[in-house]
Design brief:
single chain; 73 residues; mainly beta; two-stranded antiparallel ribbon
Length: 73
């Protein structure tokens, strides 16, 4: 993020405990704030700086009627 800027990043995860910024969990990372997860995404507010976010990949499973269901492990 450039100086004096802010942004909201939407990470694909069910909870902030599944997201990392660098090596530590997002909940322990400095300079970031999380909001309540919405529709399978965790909103993360960030300010100026460099960030490296990771989250688990969604797993696609099929229901008994053949519909795709995305789940995060």
């Amino acid at each position: 993020m450039p100086p004096n800027a802010t942004a909201t990043v939407y990470m694909p995860a069910r909870s902030p405990d599944q997201v990392r910024e660098g090596n530590p969990l997002l909940t322990a990372a400095k300079g970031v704030q999380t909001d309540t997860p919405q529709a399978g995404y965790v909103p993360v507010r960030v300010g100026s700086g460099h960030y490296h976010f990771t989250a688990p990949a969604p797993v696609t499973v099929r229901s008994s009627v053949g519909r795709r269901i995305n789940r995060f492990m």
